[in-house]
TrEMBL record:
InterPro entries: DUF7987 (IPR058293)
Name recorded for this polypeptide: PEP-CTERM protein-sorting domain-containing protein
Entry keyword set: Membrane, Transmembrane, Transmembrane helix
Segments crossing the lipid bilayer: 9-25, 31-47
């Protein structure tokens, strides 16, 4: 069985990829498209995990 954290991380990564593709299709600047990819797919899961870790203390 896949853990809740893994499912949520996969969802955020999938949303990041979709956001990247949409931003690229709309001719957004490359910095915006990459910013969406990094923020939603990389930073958001880290922030969520850290927030949960601090809630457990």
């Amino acid at each position: 069985m896949v853990s809740r954290d893994t499912r949520e991380t996969a969802l955020l990564v999938a949303l990041a990829v979709v956001g990247f593709v949409v931003a690229s299709a709309l001719d957004a600047p490359d910095a915006v498209a990459w910013g969406i990819l990094v923020a939603v797919g990389g930073v958001a899961p880290l922030v969520r995990d850290e927030w949960r870790r601090r809630q457990d203390v």
